[in-house]
TrEMBL record:
This is Small ribosomal subunit protein uS4c. PANTHER family: 30S 40S RIBOSOMAL PROTEIN, SMALL RIBOSOMAL SUBUNIT PROTEIN US4M. The lineage of its organism: Eukaryota, Viridiplantae, Streptophyta, Embryophyta, Tracheophyta. It holds the Pfam family S4. It comes from the Eukaryota. It comes from Yoania squamipes. Belongs to the universal ribosomal protein uS4 family. Part of the 30S ribosomal subunit. Contacts protein S5. The interaction surface between S4 and S5 is involved in control of translational fidelity. Keywords: Chloroplast, Plastid, Ribonucleoprotein, Ribosomal protein, RNA-binding, rRNA-binding. It is found in: Plastid, Chloroplast. With S5 and S12 plays an important role in translational accuracy. Residues 89-152 form the RNA-binding S4 domain.
Amino acid sequence: MSRYRGPRLKKIYRLGALPGLTSKRTKSGSDFKIQLCSRKRSQYCIRLEEKQKLRFHYGLTERQLLKYVHIAVKIKGSTGQVLLQLLEMRLDNILFRLGMASTIPGARQLINHKHILVNGSIVDIPSYRCKPRDIITTKDKERSKAMIQNYLASSPHIYVPNHLTLDSLKYKGFVNQIIDRKCIDLKINELLIIEYYSRKT
């Protein structure tokens, strides 16, 4: 299944707040989830919904998400927590978390167009897995810096989680450590996602 490219607000109305997918708000001015009260949702439907929320927030294809689940299962620790950490340490998500892009799709575009450097080298793979002590910068070109400057100016009070540090004057970000689960602000039950895939495989 390919990456979703349809109306983004439609997914917010259906699944709830997805800050990585779009910075737009619902018409009411606050993100909310439409509750289908007329029918009772099955356990499968609830698990599927949680999986879709994760997938759309991080901008993954079904194949990509399944690959991350398989990797998480093999790593020691809570599989759900490891899955979220793997996704959070992707380069496109790191840029979004630093405020250097307004959405994850926007961050992906910057990376694909070779505006982003990791430890001084151009990285054009959005799924690149960042590690502690990595340094994220922009190319030393006016166009690259201007785009990042616009993103940072549009969200001056963005919350940068503890595992990252932003030097906005130098358009530079630092990865301090692997993110802690409590710093992941996406409202999601990762255990339901693991259950969903355990019943599918």
